[in-house]
């Protein structure tokens, strides 16, 4: 959000509680974008952006998970029947991220 943070800031990026990067700056304006290219199952986990200064610590978590099986449809009903066909309506379930 482009906030200017108080001086003496320590900034860290973590993955599953392991530090990926760390820096220190006396005056820091920061905006972060997380890119995870060519994702595999080993990339799934909790990514954290952690900022710390003399006033305290703030952490933001991003959870990366894989695709899941979709939920079943609901309110399935046959709305029209003929001698050679039928018409079915339903509300789709959550698609599982696919």
UniProtKB/TrEMBL annotation:
Alphabetized Gene3D superfamilies for the sequence: Immunoglobulins
**Signal peptide as annotated in the record:** none
Query: Where is the Fibronectin type-III domain positioned along the sequence?
Result: 72-98
Cross-referenced InterPro entries: FN3_dom, FN3_sf, Ig-like_dom_sf, Ig-like_fold
- What is the protein name given in its UniProt record? Fibronectin type-III domain-containing protein
* Phylogenetic placement of the source organism: Eukaryota, Metazoa, Spiralia, Gnathifera, Rotifera
């Amino acid at each position: 959000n482009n906030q200017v943070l108080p001086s003496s800031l320590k900034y860290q990026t973590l993955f599953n509680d392991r530090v990926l990067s760390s820096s220190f700056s006396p005056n820091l304006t920061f905006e972060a974008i997380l890119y995870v290219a060519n994702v595999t199952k080993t990339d799934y986990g909790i990514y954290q952006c952690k900022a710390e200064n003399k006033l305290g610590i703030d952490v933001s978590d991003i959870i990366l998970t894989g695709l899941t099986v979709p939920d079943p449809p609901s309110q399935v009903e046959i709305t029209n029947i003929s001698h050679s066909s039928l018409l079915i309506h339903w509300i789709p379930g959550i698609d599982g991220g696919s």
